[in-house]
Design brief:
With 100 residues, the chain is mainly α. 73% of the residues lie in helices and 0% in strands. It starts with 9 loop residues before the first helix and ends in a 5-residue tail after the last helix.
């Protein structure tokens, strides 16, 4: 299912839904732009989210961008475990709904 060649189809999405695509890409660019939160931290946040959503495209893109922004292997490794802790914590807290 996941094949980097599929990313070439983004152009088709842009062509078939131009207004929505333009709005999305503008939003994405603004969200990831350096601001109060530096670019490296935004990329590490994005990488943590990518681990929890398990999106291989995002993991690839944001791990590369995090490195380009100066993230170390240690920072990326810690991000893995932050994501794992959050995902596990969500399972535990959602588990409380099963208790009567």
């Amino acid at each position: 299912m996941y094949d980097k060649k599929n990313l070439a189809k983004l152009k088709t999405l842009d062509e078939k839904a131009p207004e929505a695509a333009k709005a999305f890409w503008t939003f994405d660019k603004a969200a990831m732009a350096p601001g109060a939160v530096p670019a490296k931290y935004k990329e590490l946040i994005a990488l943590g989210v990518a681990f929890t959503t398990q999106c291989p495209y995002c993991i690839d893109i944001h791990s590369n961008r995090a490195r380009e922004a100066g993230a170390t292997e240690e920072e990326i490794s810690e991000t893995v475990f932050v994501a794992a802790a959050l995902r596990a914590g969500a399972a535990v807290t959602h588990g409380t709904h099963a208790l009567k």
